[in-house]
Design goal:
By secondary structure, the protein is of the alpha+beta class. The protein has helices spanning 2-19, 26-31, 158-167; strands spanning 37-38, 41-42, 44-47, 61-62, 67-73, 80-85, 94-97, 103-105, 111-114, 122-125, 130-139, 142-149. The chain is 20% helix and 33% strand. It starts with a helix and ends with a helix.
């Protein structure tokens, strides 16, 4: 029951943030610090989980694993195809798989990425419904992707969501 409340909170936050204009309320900015950019271009998770749209909700942010964002997934909708990219899909900031087949399954190791990809989407297969952390890992002038099931402590609380909704 408690976990389902957390999932509902994450979904509500996702909907709330994607409905916001480009100006982000101060409370949301506090929840989403340290946005990741390359050469001044913000980098986002773009894929089937968000209709490939650019949204602050899916902007990569500093995390222990690298630069990550959260997305709610359903196992029966797998695979989820995605990339990391800036808003214009620019060379140098358009990350798809480096070597085919570009498939990630829950618990698998990182796979190398090509920052100049065109159509090489990564496919991810979650084992269960839940909130997942999508991470871009820069390492020694190369980039890798890792997807992990999110821990409960990474999700916003209902109090934070209510506070944000009152400011709107």
């Amino acid at each position: 029951m408690k976990f389902s409340k957390i999932i509902v909170s994450a979904i509500a936050l996702s909907g709330f943030l994607s409905a916001c204009s480009s100006k982000i309320p101060e409370q949301v900015a506090e929840l989403l610090p340290n946005g990741y950019s390359i050469d001044g271009k913000a980098i986002y998770l773009r894929g089937e989980m968000n209709d490939y749209e650019v949204s602050e909700t899916y902007r990569l942010r500093k995390a222990n694993e690298g630069y990550c964002t959260l997305a709610t997934l359903r196992a029966d909708w797998a695979p989820y195809k995605f990339k990391f990219a800036d808003e214009n899909w620019s060379n140098g900031t358009n990350f798809g798989y480096l070597n085919p087949p570009g498939v990630l399954k829950e618990g698998s190791r990182t796979i190398p990425l090509n920052p100049n990809s065109k159509f090489e989407e990564i496919s991810f297969y979650p084992k269960a419904d839940g909130v997942y952390k999508f991470c871009l890992i820069p390492q020694n002038d190369k980039y890798y992707v890792l997807v992990l099931k999110s821990s409960k402590k990474e999700l916003p609380t209902m109090a934070q969501l209510i506070k944000m909704s009152k400011s709107n």
